[in-house]
Amino acid sequence: MIFIILLFILPAYNLVASYMNLQSKKEQIVKLQNQQKKLDAKTDAEKKFAQRLKDDNYVEKYARAKYYYSIDGENIYPAPNLLPK
């Protein structure tokens, strides 16, 4: 009798443990997909910024705003939201 009970309990326990493992893996997949979306957006922003840095006018404006680079006799007044974050 005990052998028959064990025959049914062990597979049921294994099934429940597998189901719990599956649920945790699904949660992990969702978290990783969200992280991938964020990283893709960040990568796209960095690519756009790199593309802008190929433009000499943008590089000049960027250097003036970020590093307060100026020509002799020129005053620099920083403007908010000019630089990418």
Automatic annotation (TrEMBL):
InterPro entries attached to this UniProt entry: DivIC, FtsL/DivIC
One GO-annotated biological process of the protein: cell division
Name used for this protein in its record: Possible septum formation initiator
Pfam families: DivIC (PF04977)
Superkingdom of origin: Bacteria
